[in-house]
Amino acid sequence: MLSAHYLTISIDGVEPESGAPALDRLISGDPKFRTWNAEERDDGLYAGIWESTPGKWRIVYDEWEFCHILSGVSVIAEDGGQARTVKSGDSFVLRPGFKGSWEVLETTRKEYVIKL
To answer: Which residues, if any, are the signal sequence (predicted)?
Structure first.
């Protein structure tokens, strides 16, 4: 019996959404995204799994996002701040107002929770 209050984050049997960075944000490469949304609520809460192939693009966050890297290696650089290399096992939050770049060095997969 499924619970209305418990949700497993899994990609089993879920068709991913495909995407890519907007062309005006692309810095290098040809990154391709796949997103498996497990939760999409009307109040602006989203959760699931996201994956990207190598490439680099500009990011601008208006939302709050918790990320947990499942596999791969990426570099997240904040404008005017430091660049951080993230890899399997790393967890972090990107807060509204974060601006910079995301560079995928090795195809990266993450679990995420976004609150608009």
So the answer is: none
What b/e string do you get for 84-104 counting C-beta neighbours within 10 Å, with b at 16 or more? Answer: eebeeeeeeebeeebebbbbb
Structure tokens at 68: 């947990």
Alpha helices for 7-100 (secondary structure H): none
pLDDT of residue 41: 92
pLDDT digits (tens, 9 = 90+) for 40-90: 999 999 999 999 999 999 999 999 999 999 999 999 999 999 999 999 999
Yes or no: say if 86 and 74 are a contact pair by the CB < 8 Å rule: yes
Question: In 3D, which of 55, 39, 58 has the Cα closest to residue 105?
Answer: 55
In this structure, what token pair is assigned to residue 57? Answer: 């693009």
This model's pTM is above 0.70:
yes
Domains of the chain and any CATH numbers? 23-115 (2.60.120.10)
